[in-house]
Structure formats: C-alpha cells, structure tokens
Amino acid sequence: MTTVTHADGAGPAGGRDDAARPAVVPYASPAAAAGPEHVEEPVAYDAILLAGFGGPEGQDDVIPFLRNVTRGRGIPDERLEEVAHHYRHFGGVSPINEHNRQLRAALQAELDARGLDLPVYWGNRNWAPYLEEAVREAADAGDTRLIAIATSAYSSFSSCRQYREDFARVLEATGLGESVTIDKVRPFFDHPGFVHAFVAGVRDAVLDLTTGEDAVPVDAVRVLFATHSIPTADARRSGPADLNERLGHGDGGSYAAQHRAVAAYVVEQVTAATGLEPGWDLVYQSRSGPPSQPWLEPDVNDRIAELPGEGVRAVVIVPLGFVSDHMEVMWDLDEEAMETAAEHGLRAVRTPTPGVDPVYVSGLVDLVLERVHGTPTAERPAVTELGPWFDVCRPGCCENVRAGFKPAAAGLAP
Ligand SMILES: CC1=C(CCC(=O)O)c2cc3nc(cc4[nH]c(cc5[nH]c(cc1n2)c(C)c5CCC(=O)O)c(CCC(=O)O)c4C)C(CCC(=O)O)=C3C
Ligand SMILES: [Fe+2]
C-alpha cells in the first residue's frame, strides 16, 4: 500500500498526516455508509402495519399460543408448561394485545392530529389478530404499499429478522406477494422518541433513592439495564456481519452494542440532569433453551446477587429491551428480579417502558415519515453514534443459524 501525503492541504486527506492514521476504514454511522440499504427515495405508502408479538387473552389460549411461539423448534411440552405457569398466574392473560390496541389508537390519533391520511393495521406474529388478517384487510381496502413498525427496537433474529420472515411467509400464504409490499422502519433503539421514557424513569428513580429520609448515596445505587437474552450464536450474527467485525462487537454482536450505547446515553442524560453518576451494567433475562447452548450473560438475578458484596444498597431495574410491560417484564422482572433483590436486602425500583408515552408515539410517526419523505441521513435523529441504523437490512442480516435460511421481506434481495 502506498501512502500519499498532501503537504499542501489539498486532496482527499485535507492536509492531515495519512501515515499516522491506522489503516482501517474510519467508523461512520452504518446508514451514513450509504449504499442501497439506506433509502432516500420518498415512498407514497398507503398504510402502516403495526406488527406485534401477540399474547394469550385467557387460560384456554395459553398452550396454543405457546405452540405458535415455538412452532418448528421442537420445544418439549414440559418447558411450555413451565412458561404457561407465568401466564396462568395472571389469569392466562398477557397485557400485550391490549398494549397494542392502545398503541394503534394512539398512533392513529397522532396521524390524524398531523393531518396524515395513513390507516394503521395491526397484526401479530403469534396470536390473533394475526398478521395474515391485517395484510388481507389492508389489501381489501386497496392499501398495498405498507410500512411496518415492529414492536421491537433492536437488531437480532428475534427482534428484527423474525418479523421480516413472518412478513414474507404471510405474503406467500395469502397469495398477495405480487400486489402487496411490506417495508419496515429502521431499528429505532437510539431514536429520541424511544429513549425518552427510559431517561425520565432512571432520572426519577435515582433522584428518589438518593433523597429523603432513607436516602442512599449514589455510589450505593446500581442501574441494571435489562434485555432479553438470546443465544450467542444469534447475537454474533445480529446486524450486518461486516459491521460486527469492523467494530469488534464480539459475542454480543450489534444487539449488545446497541443496548450498551443506549444505556450509556441514558446514564449520561441522567447525570447531566441531576449531577448524579450511578454505576450501571447491561444484564440479560428470560433465558430459555438447553443449558448447553450459550446465551448472553450475566443473568439479571446473578448480577443482583453480587451487588451487596460491592457495597450496593439499591438497584434500579430498567427494561431497556422492551417497548411495553408485557409478560417478560411483569414476571421476569417484577416478580423474579424483585424477589431476588429483596432476598439480598436491596431496595429496588423498576422503571417504565415506553408504552404509549406521547413522545414515543410521535417518534414512531416520525420514523414512518422519514421513509415517506425520503429524509437524508443527516436529518434522521439518533442519540448514539451507532445510528441512525439501516433502513433496509442487508442479505444475511440477523439470520438464524439454528433454524436455517428462510426468505425475509423488507430487506435487500439476496
Ligand atoms: C429478543 C427477544 C424479545 C424482544 C423483542 C420483541 O419484543 O419482539 C422477545 C420478546 C417476547 N418474547 C415473548 C414470549 C416468548 N418468547 C419465547 C422464546 C424466546 N424469545 C426470544 C427472544 C426474544 N423474545 C428467544 C431467543 C426465545 C427462545 C426461542 C428460540 O429458540 O428462538 C417464548 C417461548 C418459551 C420460552 O422459550 O421461554 C415465549 C412465550 C413475548 C410475549 C410476552 C407476552 O406474552 O406478554 C415477547 C414480547
Ligand atoms: Fe421471547
């Protein structure tokens, strides 16, 4: 390799000493790296497709729902019964469908208030109303160019690709593949609308714990950012493979990197607002699968158990990986992690999820409008240096090595 020095300040190096710079591609935001995975063409979408996970709404729904979730994965019935127990504890009802009904209404109200004529269709991956019904309903109304919002903010098989594979499956199953297109807004983990509720929640929790009669000093407060654990094999393949390699994301891949970046931002904002600087960790929850299969660690409960030995007296649990207070939050955090904290003599606060926070809802509409208007990267808000993330996933992005290749919509053709 030849090094050219532009001593006169002209030329591509702008007068800086090229020889002194490391021979790696300088890091730029993935979307800024341009290419066809970033869209600046305006698209006249007909409607929004709100794509949810789905959840049971009564005791009789629980086992059929769990069979849907685990379809094709050969999860034994004993494991299903174990998880069913979490749902049974709450009358067999997950609040997730009700959350999505409310989110749909809030989105529609925000769109109407802004004078935007975009209907919102809602369908789930694993329970009624199914994505199939939503897509058929849209097509029947003549709405064929759909922009999807999945209720999941990060990159990984479970949080992005699985939704896209389901879109492809539904287009095939309904025979609408020729007439209907489904695109998807970018993973929005670092959109200011998504992070807003987390910043407010951590700020309030840290202020509460460190003031008043039973105040705890800030260095005895630990903030635990909790997200769904996933197999390390999935995590390593989350986001574009070349990016993981280039940025040295390691076993956690883009999935963990995105969470770390948002967590660091949240703590920075809390420090800026309060002058308090609590320590924090990224922790994982809701692991399943055989013990022999490595998943992301540490588990939230294991980390909590270590904290008293480090002088910690209060813990703030932040459900950073989730958009609403569904079963993973209600059971794994509010029941299990809270109990672990109590057993270890720690005070504990669980902060809110975005839910239908107006700032979040308005941010989701902004994410849709980015694609409607073909907004340039520089004008797409992102609070971490990782983003704004790709609009359109690359071939192989977040592929599941365990389940094997399946076609996915809303991505570059392979
Ligand atoms: C990353 C991620 C999110 C966040 C992104 C997003 O929000 O989409 C998420 C959300 C959710 N996960 C949910 C429920 C379940 N997830 C399961 C299983 C799994 N999740 C995984 C990952 C994730 N899951 C993985 C890697 C598995 C193992 C299966 C495999 O090998 O790939 C199982 C099967 C039983 C079990 O194995 O525990 C259930 C019942 C509910 C509904 C809650 C409710 O009803 O209120 C929600 C929102
Ligand atoms: Fe899950």
Automatic annotation (TrEMBL):
It is found in: Cytoplasm. Fe-coproporphyrin III binds at S94, Y163. Residues 1-21 are annotated as: Disordered. Its main location: cytoplasm. Pfam families: Ferrochelatase. One of its GO terms (molecular function) is ferrochelatase activity. Keywords: Cytoplasm, Heme biosynthesis, Iron, Lyase, Metal-binding, Porphyrin biosynthesis. Fe(2+) binds at H228, E328. GO terms for biological process: heme biosynthetic process. GO terms for cellular component: cytoplasm. It catalyses: Fe-coproporphyrin III + 2 H(+) = coproporphyrin III + Fe(2+). Pathway: Porphyrin-containing compound metabolism; protoheme biosynthesis. Involved in coproporphyrin-dependent heme b biosynthesis. Catalyzes the insertion of ferrous iron into coproporphyrin III to form Fe-coproporphyrin III. PANTHER family: FERROCHELATASE (PTHR11108), FERROCHELATASE, MITOCHONDRIAL (PTHR11108:SF1). Belongs to the ferrochelatase family. This is Coproporphyrin III ferrochelatase.
